[in-house]
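Cross-check.
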Amino acid sequence: MGKKPLHLIIAGDIPELAFMPKLLDQQGFSVQFCKDGPEVLQVALTTPPQLIVMDVNLALLPLARLVKILRSNPKTLEIPFFVIGSQEDGKHVMKFLQRDKDAFVVRPFNQEQMTNRIGRILKKTVHVGELADGKSEIEGNLNQISLVDLLQIFYLNRKDGILSLECAKEKATIYLLEGNVVNAQVGSVDGEKAFFRLLAWEKGNFWFTPAGVNCENKINHPTDYLIMEGLRQKDEMVSQADSLLGRENCIKLRVPKDHLPKGLRPSTQEILTLLNHYDNVAEILDKCPRPDYEVLHILKVLLEKGLIGKFSKSGAHLKKDDQPLLSAETILSIRDCLGERDALLEEGSAKVVVLTSSAQELADFAEIFQGIQEFEPEAGWETSDTVFRVGDFGRLRVADNFFLRLFSLSSKPEGSPLWAPFCRRVIGVISLSPYGGKAEAESFFQRRRVPVFRVRLDKPHGDEICLLPGNRSGLRKLLANFASAFLAKHIVTREIP
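Predicted model, tokenized:
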């Protein structure tokens, strides 16, 4: 025996409705025409339809009263309404219609488009009825029935089973126990985070398999709470779309980890820890168990405060590079030149001077050590862009028992009295370019036969070395140049009292 045709009611004394029964009948639907409100009420209560299409000005029974009566009866509670009227009518009609179920159509309208739209709504009700029955495997499309509607049907009918979803190349699963969502998975993400992510799916295929659920319960909130919270987060993400980072963005810390503000919230600290290992938003979203909206909001705040920055992955400096900054042979030779032949097993150090003309210049330079695992920032040192400080701001541990001290000196003439006292154990000097005003300081160190190399922080230029954040190859080249020049001349200077 075939299925009964879908049934709908059309009511109202307007020309646009006169031809619709014939058009819908040709599509295989069962249509009953009613002339006024009381007749609609009688037919609907006797044989509940899948849809009611009616004019806003029904005779004998006001539209608002008719909708209220039908919505208060369990047999007709779920019937959707298509109401037809003028633009002005829509302002008060939508006050008693349900936006997620009903529709208001402004006349004049295209009858063919209207009948096609009604056909889609009626087919959606077939899925709803079958899903509520839930005795066999059901499949459909999210264009016909939303994920929220699906979950509410399963919840109201206390269904056990597995809801599988597929959109483009992504696959996902939601596990239901007595109508409640107990776990969700999409890619490598599970739990509430995965569930909230799935609520953003507006298209794709689904299939529901009634079955006992045997999985770890990672979601303990009731389904109605999950839906409300998930939709709230979705709305927030949509409203802030222009200010939130995208999954494709690459990001990095702009300050050493030890120099971050104290007393950060655990969620912020968790994300900052992930930034030590991952450099794009997509990976951080997938690795952090917190909801996507919370992660994106924290990243937004960190970006606004200048603690993180965006960068492009097109540069060659982002290629995988695990080579040491200095070879073991080079380190042994440097220590030998520094007079540590008899103390090679003890911890030792050499100095690299960084000539800077401003606090901002030093702060910019400090950014290149993001992602350099050998870098150890000096405790208590802050790379402020307003206060310039002389002294160690970090070090590079190039071997277990040897490190290079990174020492900041002012390149301005008024800072010249400090140049000589800090010359001891210097293997090289970095002069930042294109910043000017360093000729006198460069000349001072060159006269003492200390290698001086100009370094740029933006792009290569001439014979100057370019250093970008995390650029191991550039840093390794610079240190190799220092070591080569230092070893060639066997320079050992003594600190002047």
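The mean pLDDT is 82. The longest helix spans residues 111-133. Passed to J.P. for a second look.
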